[in-house]
Amino acid sequence: MPRGLERLDRETLVGWLRETDPAELERLWSRADRVRAAHVGDAVHLRGLVEISNHCVRDCLYCGIRAHSPGLARYRMAAGEILECAREAKRLGYGTVVLQSGEDPGLTRAFVSGVIRAIKSETGLAVTLGLGERTDDELAAWKADGADRFLLRFETSDPALYRRIHPSLPGAPSDRVAQLRRMRAMGYEIGSGVMVGIPGQTWDILARDVETIRDLDSDMVGIGPFLPSPRAPLGGSGAGTLRAPADEQVPNDELTTLKVVALTRLACPEANLPSTTALATIDPASGRELGLTRGANVVMPNLTPSRYRVLYEIYPGKAGLHETADVGHAVLERRIAAIGRHAGTGPGARGR
Question: Which domains does the chain have, with CATH numbers?
Fold first, then answer.
Protein backbone atom coordinates (compact mmCIF):
# COMPACT_ATOMS: atom_id res chain seq x y z
CA MET A 1 0.00 0.00 0.00
CA PRO A 2 1.44 3.43 -0.89
CA ARG A 3 1.80 6.10 1.70
CA GLY A 4 -0.54 9.08 2.05
CA LEU A 5 -1.13 11.71 -0.60
CA GLU A 6 0.01 14.72 1.39
CA ARG A 7 3.69 14.52 0.49
CA LEU A 8 4.60 13.14 -2.91
CA ASP A 9 8.23 12.11 -2.58
CA ARG A 10 9.83 9.71 -5.06
CA GLU A 11 9.02 6.57 -3.07
CA THR A 12 5.39 7.60 -2.66
CA LEU A 13 5.02 8.45 -6.34
CA VAL A 14 6.43 5.07 -7.40
CA GLY A 15 4.11 3.33 -4.94
CA TRP A 16 1.02 5.00 -6.39
CA LEU A 17 2.15 4.43 -9.97
CA ARG A 18 2.47 0.71 -9.26
CA GLU A 19 -0.80 0.50 -7.29
CA THR A 20 -3.53 -1.77 -8.72
CA ASP A 21 -5.94 -2.19 -5.79
CA PRO A 22 -9.25 -0.53 -6.85
CA ALA A 23 -10.02 0.57 -3.28
CA GLU A 24 -6.65 2.26 -2.92
CA LEU A 25 -6.95 3.86 -6.35
CA GLU A 26 -10.35 5.23 -5.41
CA ARG A 27 -8.56 7.22 -2.70
CA LEU A 28 -6.29 8.67 -5.37
CA TRP A 29 -9.15 9.48 -7.77
CA SER A 30 -11.22 11.13 -5.04
CA ARG A 31 -8.36 13.22 -3.70
CA ALA A 32 -7.35 14.41 -7.19
CA ASP A 33 -10.95 15.37 -8.02
CA ARG A 34 -11.34 17.27 -4.74
CA VAL A 35 -8.10 19.17 -5.32
CA ARG A 36 -9.21 19.96 -8.89
CA ALA A 37 -12.55 21.33 -7.66
CA ALA A 38 -10.94 23.39 -4.89
CA HIS A 39 -8.23 24.98 -7.05
CA VAL A 40 -9.61 25.31 -10.59
CA GLY A 41 -13.33 24.76 -10.12
CA ASP A 42 -15.89 22.76 -12.07
CA ALA A 43 -15.50 24.53 -15.41
CA VAL A 44 -14.03 22.51 -18.28
CA HIS A 45 -12.15 24.89 -20.54
CA LEU A 46 -12.54 24.20 -24.26
CA ARG A 47 -9.56 25.23 -26.37
CA GLY A 48 -9.89 25.10 -30.13
CA LEU A 49 -7.02 23.14 -31.68
CA VAL A 50 -5.82 23.97 -35.19
CA GLU A 51 -3.14 21.70 -36.69
CA ILE A 52 -1.60 24.26 -39.02
CA SER A 53 1.19 22.18 -40.62
CA ASN A 54 2.35 18.57 -40.75
CA HIS A 55 5.81 19.42 -42.05
CA CYS A 56 8.55 18.49 -39.58
CA VAL A 57 12.35 18.49 -39.62
CA ARG A 58 12.58 16.09 -36.67
CA ASP A 59 12.81 12.32 -36.93
CA CYS A 60 11.28 11.27 -33.60
CA LEU A 61 11.05 7.48 -33.56
CA TYR A 62 7.35 7.34 -32.63
CA CYS A 63 5.72 10.11 -34.65
CA GLY A 64 3.70 9.73 -37.85
CA ILE A 65 4.68 13.14 -39.23
CA ARG A 66 8.43 12.65 -38.69
CA ALA A 67 10.70 14.00 -41.41
CA HIS A 68 11.14 10.62 -43.06
CA SER A 69 7.58 9.35 -42.69
CA PRO A 70 6.96 7.40 -45.92
CA GLY A 71 4.04 8.27 -48.19
CA LEU A 72 2.66 11.15 -46.13
CA ALA A 73 1.13 14.06 -48.04
CA ARG A 74 2.34 17.30 -46.51
CA TYR A 75 0.36 20.51 -46.00
CA ARG A 76 0.79 23.96 -44.51
CA MET A 77 -2.31 26.06 -43.92
CA ALA A 78 -2.57 29.57 -45.34
CA ALA A 79 -2.94 32.51 -42.96
CA GLY A 80 -6.53 33.08 -44.06
CA GLU A 81 -7.43 29.45 -43.36
CA ILE A 82 -5.99 29.65 -39.85
CA LEU A 83 -7.86 32.88 -39.16
CA GLU A 84 -11.11 31.26 -40.30
CA CYS A 85 -10.56 28.49 -37.74
CA ALA A 86 -10.02 31.14 -35.05
CA ARG A 87 -13.31 32.73 -36.07
CA GLU A 88 -14.92 29.31 -35.64
CA ALA A 89 -13.45 29.04 -32.15
CA LYS A 90 -14.89 32.44 -31.29
CA ARG A 91 -18.32 31.47 -32.69
CA LEU A 92 -18.36 28.30 -30.59
CA GLY A 93 -17.53 30.26 -27.43
CA TYR A 94 -13.99 29.07 -26.87
CA GLY A 95 -11.59 31.42 -25.10
CA THR A 96 -8.38 30.07 -26.62
CA VAL A 97 -7.12 28.90 -30.00
CA VAL A 98 -4.16 26.51 -30.05
CA LEU A 99 -1.92 26.56 -33.14
CA GLN A 100 -0.05 23.26 -33.35
CA SER A 101 2.35 21.89 -35.95
CA GLY A 102 5.37 19.78 -36.58
CA GLU A 103 8.68 21.58 -36.24
CA ASP A 104 8.32 23.43 -39.51
CA PRO A 105 10.81 26.14 -40.58
CA GLY A 106 8.29 27.07 -43.28
CA LEU A 107 6.23 28.62 -40.49
CA THR A 108 8.51 31.62 -40.44
CA ARG A 109 8.80 34.22 -37.75
CA ALA A 110 7.01 36.78 -39.94
CA PHE A 111 4.23 34.39 -40.98
CA VAL A 112 3.40 33.32 -37.42
CA SER A 113 3.60 36.94 -36.21
CA GLY A 114 1.06 37.98 -38.82
CA VAL A 115 -1.29 35.16 -37.85
CA ILE A 116 -1.05 36.01 -34.14
CA ARG A 117 -1.75 39.69 -34.75
CA ALA A 118 -4.73 38.91 -36.99
CA ILE A 119 -6.28 36.51 -34.47
CA LYS A 120 -5.82 38.91 -31.58
CA SER A 121 -7.15 41.87 -33.57
CA GLU A 122 -10.24 40.15 -34.95
CA THR A 123 -11.23 37.70 -32.21
CA GLY A 124 -9.47 38.70 -28.99
CA LEU A 125 -8.88 35.03 -28.21
CA ALA A 126 -5.93 33.83 -26.17
CA VAL A 127 -3.34 32.35 -28.53
CA THR A 128 -1.41 29.23 -27.59
CA LEU A 129 1.46 28.04 -29.79
CA GLY A 130 2.74 24.48 -30.06
CA LEU A 131 5.39 24.78 -32.77
CA GLY A 132 8.25 22.75 -31.32
CA GLU A 133 11.76 23.91 -30.55
CA ARG A 134 12.23 27.46 -31.84
CA THR A 135 14.84 30.20 -31.49
CA ASP A 136 14.68 32.76 -28.71
CA ASP A 137 14.31 35.52 -31.32
CA GLU A 138 11.22 33.84 -32.73
CA LEU A 139 9.75 33.18 -29.31
CA ALA A 140 10.33 36.75 -28.13
CA ALA A 141 8.80 38.18 -31.32
CA TRP A 142 5.69 36.02 -31.03
CA LYS A 143 5.25 36.98 -27.38
CA ALA A 144 5.49 40.65 -28.34
CA ASP A 145 2.90 40.08 -31.07
CA GLY A 146 0.40 38.78 -28.52
CA ALA A 147 0.97 35.02 -28.05
CA ASP A 148 -0.11 34.04 -24.55
CA ARG A 149 1.08 30.45 -24.11
CA PHE A 150 3.48 27.95 -25.58
CA LEU A 151 3.12 24.17 -25.32
CA LEU A 152 6.25 22.00 -25.50
CA ARG A 153 6.15 18.53 -23.94
CA PHE A 154 9.52 17.35 -22.66
CA GLU A 155 8.23 13.76 -23.20
CA THR A 156 10.55 12.14 -20.61
CA SER A 157 12.84 13.49 -17.90
CA ASP A 158 15.46 10.80 -18.57
CA PRO A 159 18.13 12.29 -20.88
CA ALA A 160 19.32 8.95 -22.28
CA LEU A 161 15.79 7.77 -23.06
CA TYR A 162 14.95 11.15 -24.61
CA ARG A 163 17.96 10.96 -26.93
CA ARG A 164 17.03 7.44 -28.02
CA ILE A 165 13.53 8.39 -29.14
CA HIS A 166 14.10 12.01 -30.16
CA PRO A 167 17.26 12.51 -32.24
CA SER A 168 18.68 16.02 -32.21
CA LEU A 169 19.29 17.97 -35.39
CA PRO A 170 22.95 18.21 -36.42
CA GLY A 171 24.67 20.90 -34.36
CA ALA A 172 21.52 21.66 -32.38
CA PRO A 173 21.26 19.66 -29.14
CA SER A 174 17.68 19.38 -27.93
CA ASP A 175 16.91 20.78 -24.47
CA ARG A 176 13.19 21.31 -24.10
CA VAL A 177 13.28 21.95 -20.35
CA ALA A 178 15.72 24.82 -20.94
CA GLN A 179 13.43 26.30 -23.60
CA LEU A 180 10.46 26.07 -21.26
CA ARG A 181 12.35 27.99 -18.60
CA ARG A 182 13.43 30.66 -21.09
CA MET A 183 9.84 31.05 -22.30
CA ARG A 184 8.64 31.47 -18.73
CA ALA A 185 11.19 34.30 -18.35
CA MET A 186 9.79 35.89 -21.54
CA GLY A 187 6.34 36.02 -19.97
CA TYR A 188 4.68 33.02 -21.59
CA GLU A 189 2.40 30.70 -19.72
CA ILE A 190 4.19 27.42 -20.33
CA GLY A 191 2.68 24.05 -21.03
CA SER A 192 4.55 20.78 -20.98
CA GLY A 193 3.97 17.11 -20.29
CA VAL A 194 5.02 13.53 -20.87
CA MET A 195 4.13 10.31 -22.62
CA VAL A 196 3.27 7.30 -20.49
CA GLY A 197 4.64 3.92 -21.48
CA ILE A 198 7.57 4.87 -23.72
CA PRO A 199 9.66 1.74 -24.39
CA GLY A 200 12.44 1.92 -21.81
CA GLN A 201 10.47 4.10 -19.36
CA THR A 202 10.65 2.65 -15.83
CA TRP A 203 8.49 3.44 -12.81
CA ASP A 204 11.31 5.50 -11.32
CA ILE A 205 11.69 7.53 -14.54
CA LEU A 206 7.94 8.18 -14.60
CA ALA A 207 8.03 9.34 -10.97
CA ARG A 208 10.87 11.70 -11.92
CA ASP A 209 8.67 12.97 -14.78
CA VAL A 210 6.02 14.04 -12.24
CA GLU A 211 8.72 15.69 -10.13
CA THR A 212 10.01 17.58 -13.19
CA ILE A 213 6.51 18.81 -14.01
CA ARG A 214 6.21 20.08 -10.44
CA ASP A 215 9.66 21.71 -10.53
CA LEU A 216 8.83 23.51 -13.80
CA ASP A 217 5.69 24.92 -12.17
CA SER A 218 3.94 24.35 -15.50
CA ASP A 219 0.77 26.31 -16.20
CA MET A 220 -0.60 23.51 -18.39
CA VAL A 221 0.35 19.83 -18.41
CA GLY A 222 -0.55 17.37 -21.18
CA ILE A 223 -0.31 13.68 -20.27
CA GLY A 224 -1.12 10.92 -22.70
CA PRO A 225 -0.26 7.31 -23.40
CA PHE A 226 2.59 6.48 -25.75
CA LEU A 227 0.86 5.76 -29.08
CA PRO A 228 3.46 5.20 -31.80
CA SER A 229 2.57 5.59 -35.44
CA PRO A 230 2.89 2.50 -37.66
CA ARG A 231 4.86 4.80 -39.99
CA ALA A 232 7.56 5.20 -37.34
CA PRO A 233 10.29 2.79 -36.12
CA LEU A 234 8.73 2.37 -32.66
CA GLY A 235 5.37 1.54 -34.23
CA GLY A 236 6.65 -1.92 -35.11
CA SER A 237 9.21 -4.40 -33.88
CA GLY A 238 11.70 -1.63 -33.04
CA ALA A 239 9.96 -0.98 -29.71
CA GLY A 240 11.18 -4.30 -28.33
CA THR A 241 14.81 -3.25 -28.51
CA LEU A 242 14.21 -0.40 -26.04
CA ARG A 243 11.87 -2.01 -23.52
CA ALA A 244 12.86 -2.11 -19.86
CA PRO A 245 12.67 -5.43 -17.92
CA ALA A 246 9.08 -6.63 -17.65
CA ASP A 247 8.59 -5.67 -13.99
CA GLU A 248 10.00 -2.19 -14.60
CA GLN A 249 8.56 -1.27 -18.01
CA VAL A 250 5.68 1.21 -17.66
CA PRO A 251 2.65 0.11 -19.72
CA ASN A 252 1.09 2.58 -22.18
CA ASP A 253 -2.40 1.90 -20.88
CA GLU A 254 -5.33 3.94 -19.67
CA LEU A 255 -4.99 3.10 -15.98
CA THR A 256 -1.37 4.21 -15.73
CA THR A 257 -2.10 7.39 -17.71
CA LEU A 258 -4.96 8.25 -15.34
CA LYS A 259 -2.69 7.68 -12.33
CA VAL A 260 -0.20 10.18 -13.75
CA VAL A 261 -3.01 12.69 -14.40
CA ALA A 262 -4.22 12.36 -10.80
CA LEU A 263 -0.74 12.59 -9.28
CA THR A 264 0.04 15.62 -11.45
CA ARG A 265 -3.09 17.34 -10.17
CA LEU A 266 -1.90 16.76 -6.60
CA ALA A 267 1.60 17.96 -7.45
CA CYS A 268 0.35 21.02 -9.40
CA PRO A 269 -3.03 22.00 -7.89
CA GLU A 270 -3.57 25.14 -9.98
CA ALA A 271 -2.33 23.90 -13.34
CA ASN A 272 -4.62 23.35 -16.32
CA LEU A 273 -4.67 19.64 -17.17
CA PRO A 274 -6.25 18.46 -20.44
CA SER A 275 -8.08 15.21 -20.73
CA THR A 276 -6.11 14.47 -23.87
CA THR A 277 -7.19 13.26 -27.28
CA ALA A 278 -4.76 10.35 -26.87
CA LEU A 279 -6.62 9.25 -23.76
CA ALA A 280 -9.91 9.45 -25.66
CA THR A 281 -8.32 7.47 -28.49
CA ILE A 282 -7.51 4.42 -26.34
CA ASP A 283 -10.93 4.60 -24.65
CA PRO A 284 -13.47 6.27 -26.96
CA ALA A 285 -16.40 5.38 -24.69
CA SER A 286 -15.23 7.07 -21.49
CA GLY A 287 -11.58 8.14 -21.72
CA ARG A 288 -12.31 11.86 -21.68
CA GLU A 289 -14.74 11.57 -18.78
CA LEU A 290 -12.34 9.47 -16.71
CA GLY A 291 -9.61 12.06 -17.27
CA LEU A 292 -11.96 14.85 -16.18
CA THR A 293 -12.98 12.99 -13.00
CA ARG A 294 -9.38 12.21 -12.05
CA GLY A 295 -7.95 15.70 -12.09
CA ALA A 296 -8.27 17.18 -15.60
CA ASN A 297 -10.12 20.41 -16.41
CA VAL A 298 -9.41 21.12 -20.10
CA VAL A 299 -10.49 19.58 -23.42
CA MET A 300 -9.10 20.59 -26.80
CA PRO A 301 -11.71 20.08 -29.55
CA ASN A 302 -10.19 19.89 -33.02
CA LEU A 303 -11.09 22.71 -35.44
CA THR A 304 -8.66 21.71 -38.20
CA PRO A 305 -10.41 21.49 -41.60
CA SER A 306 -11.11 17.83 -42.37
CA ARG A 307 -8.95 17.78 -45.51
CA TYR A 308 -5.93 18.59 -43.33
CA ARG A 309 -6.96 16.82 -40.15
CA VAL A 310 -6.63 13.37 -41.70
CA LEU A 311 -3.04 14.23 -42.68
CA TYR A 312 -1.96 15.27 -39.16
CA GLU A 313 -1.40 11.63 -38.35
CA ILE A 314 0.92 11.69 -35.35
CA TYR A 315 -0.58 8.40 -34.10
CA PRO A 316 -3.24 6.04 -35.48
CA GLY A 317 -6.98 6.17 -34.87
CA LYS A 318 -7.08 9.66 -33.36
CA ALA A 319 -10.39 10.39 -31.63
CA GLY A 320 -12.77 12.78 -33.40
CA LEU A 321 -10.91 12.49 -36.69
CA HIS A 322 -14.01 12.79 -38.88
CA GLU A 323 -16.25 15.00 -36.71
CA THR A 324 -17.14 18.50 -37.86
CA ALA A 325 -16.43 21.34 -35.45
CA ASP A 326 -20.14 21.74 -34.62
CA VAL A 327 -20.71 18.02 -34.06
CA GLY A 328 -17.59 17.69 -31.95
CA HIS A 329 -18.59 20.70 -29.86
CA ALA A 330 -22.10 19.36 -29.24
CA VAL A 331 -20.78 15.93 -28.26
CA LEU A 332 -18.29 17.42 -25.82
CA GLU A 333 -20.88 19.65 -24.19
CA ARG A 334 -23.20 16.66 -23.63
CA ARG A 335 -20.40 14.54 -22.19
CA ILE A 336 -19.23 17.32 -19.89
CA ALA A 337 -22.77 17.92 -18.62
CA ALA A 338 -23.22 14.18 -18.02
CA ILE A 339 -20.50 14.25 -15.34
CA GLY A 340 -21.99 17.30 -13.62
CA ARG A 341 -19.55 19.85 -15.01
CA HIS A 342 -19.96 22.81 -17.36
CA ALA A 343 -18.02 24.43 -20.19
CA GLY A 344 -15.85 27.32 -19.09
CA THR A 345 -15.82 30.80 -20.54
CA GLY A 346 -12.94 33.11 -21.33
CA PRO A 347 -9.28 32.17 -21.79
CA GLY A 348 -9.12 29.92 -18.71
CA ALA A 349 -5.82 31.11 -17.27
CA ARG A 350 -4.08 29.07 -14.62
CA GLY A 351 -6.05 28.61 -11.43
CA ARG A 352 -9.34 29.76 -13.01
Answer: 10-343 (3.20.20.70)
